[in-house]
Amino acid sequence: MKTLCTLLALLLAGCTSIPEGATPVSNFQLDRYLGKWYEIARLDHSFERGLSDVSAVYGMRADGGVSVLNRGYDPAKGDWKAAEGKAFFIDSPSTGSLKVSFFGPFYGGYHIVALDPDYRWSLVLGPSRDYLWILARERQLPKAVMEQLEGKARQLGFDTDKLIRVSHERPDA
Questions:
Q1: How large is the greatest C-alpha to C-alpha distance in the chain, in angstroms?
Q2: Which letter, b or e, does each residue of 110-141 get, where b requires 16 or more Cβ atoms within 10 Å of its Cβ?
Q3: CA angle, corner 15, sides to 85 and 74, nearest 5?
Q4: What is the pTM of this model?
Q5: Which residues contact 106 (CB under 8 A, 6 or more apart)?
Q6: For the segment 119-173, what is each residue's pLDDT rounded down to a tens digit?
Q7: For residue range 64-76, what is the model confidence (pLDDT) as tens digits?
Q8: Which of 15, 6, 39 is nearest to 136 (CA)?
Q9: d(C-alpha 153, C-alpha 26), whole Å
């Protein structure tokens, strides 16, 4: 039983790890990161597959954690999808590395590896090279910024040819 618990703990901890060679930003300031972010690009995964107009809103929780509201439009169903979650710092609050949960006790890594000094855009990685998001405060990013972020992702070993550009055509609700 002890071995099973140890294995389970290692598996769950592995879900919050950061891909090898990546380093989360330091001097992170959560209060500046809170608010609404638009998903500009992502790698494909089942929980956002086919969605457009994707955004995330981060806020403070009473327990010191971060509330997360992800929202996107499903054109196939003609309806909005939303998921509420919670996030907590993995280590120091000045390091841009959090664990996020949308499903009970299961957490995934949310690692900010590039962040605009004015908090206008960020490059976020999950626990493996299967998860990557480019986020921005506006619905679009200048071409030069996109090229810079894609270059950083490539340098970290991500297949940027598989990035999905997210369209933002619907008004915010």
A1: 54
A2: bbbbbbeeebebbbbbbbebebbbbbbeeeeb
A3: 45
A4: 0.90
A5: 12, 15
A6: 999 999 999 999 999 999 999 999 999 999 999 999 999 999 999 999 999 987 5
A7: 999 999 999 999 9
A8: 39
A9: 18
Residue type, 66: V
Overall size of the chain counted in residues: 173
Residue 148 CA: distances (Å) to CA of 5, 24, 55: 42, 17, 21
Stated as kind and residue range, the H or E segment containing 146 is helix 143-155
Distance CA 63, CA 59 (A): 12
State which amino acid sits at residue 27: N
Scanning the structure block, which residue is given the tokens 């929202």? 71
| Structure tokens belonging to residue 67 | 């509330």
Residue in this structure with the two tokens 């994707």, named with its chain if needed: 54
Amino acid, single-letter form, for residue 136:
A
DSSP string, 34-78: -EEEEEEEE---GGGTT-EEEEEEEEE-TTSSEEEEEEEEETTTT
